[in-house]
Amino acid sequence: MNNGRCLPMVAFGTWQLGNDTVVKQAIKSAIQSGYRLIDTADIYGNEKMIGNILQELFNDGIINRNDLFITTKVWCNHFSKPSVLKSIRQSMKRLKLSYLDLVLLHYPTGFKENGEKYPKFKNGSIIPRTWQKDSYVETWQSMEQAQRNGYTRSIGVSNFNRAQIKTLLSNSTIKPVLNQVESHPNLKQSLLLQYLLENQILMQAYAPIRKADKELLNNQILTTIGQNHNKSSAHIALRWQLQRSVPIVVKSSNPKRIESNIQLFDFQLTDDEMKQIEQIEEKQRIYDIPGLMNHPDYPFNEQ
């Protein structure tokens, strides 16, 4: 990353992973399979559970804290300056950690801070914290303070577009290390990726196989390339990201799938195969927040 710290290329995602028992077994399987980055967030509602699992793993000597990279995210209803620091401290407490490796702003869109995760007007629109555009700049200043305080070793963003990154870079003293966004062969984010790399910021892809979308996984280009390497189409979609310098967040509760998803380092796609994947048709994103479109900092009108 641009601050000299290292980020594992494959992260284990925990959003909507399942109940306590499922999550516990999945994280144990992930660590056993070689994952070293656990990705969570305030809004996922599972930080406390993950904290308990991590403590158990540490106490049993299965893994050391220094060998793990833990990412969490500040939710949109904690975007005022004092609320950011409070949210991060609460995440640390729930995760039972003395420091975090990476904290992200989950979206560039601050919500009204009334305790509700999704505060809405009667018409269903999200209530912004302020109608002032680019208000995440103020929020970022608290993220910088969190890093200076030692709460986290690195800070970054999620779901930001190029214009928002540019605004942030013009108004920051600590550059974000990465931008975590939805990306897969149907949503390549090529312009965003190019801009981020030019500014020494990583793009990290969530939903890298479009929620195991059957149409994507049955795509002729991916399946044919997979046959060339004796790999699944999912492996090809994931390896494609790694070869364009995009770390990924993968998720599964199935132990065999968990192990399979990280088996990406024993083959390499050719330049021609990479170009073929670039030809796969673009589609609409699958993740958005209902009622967010009228927010002054809505990020998905452009890359």
Automatic annotation (TrEMBL):
An example of a GO molecular function for this protein is:
oxidoreductase activity, acting on the CH-OH group of donors, NAD or NADP as acceptor
Looking up InterPro entries in the UniProt record yields: AKR, Aldo/ket_reductase_CS, NAD(P)_OxRdtase_dom_sf, NADP_OxRdtase_dom
Q: Which keywords accompany this UniProt record?
A: Oxidoreductase
Ranges of residues in domain NADP-dependent oxidoreductase: 11-281
Question: Where does the record place the site Lowers pKa of active site Tyr?
Answer: K73
Binding-site residues, substrate: H106
- List the Pfam families hit by this protein, alphabetically: Aldo_ket_red
Which residues are the active-site ones? Y44
SUPFAM superfamilies the UniProt entry points to: NAD(P)-linked oxidoreductase
Under PANTHER family, the record lists: 2,5-DIKETO-D-GLUCONIC ACID REDUCTASE, NADP-DEPENDENT OXIDOREDUCTASE DOMAIN-CONTAINING PROTEIN
Protein name, per record? Aldo-keto reductase family 1 member B10-like protein
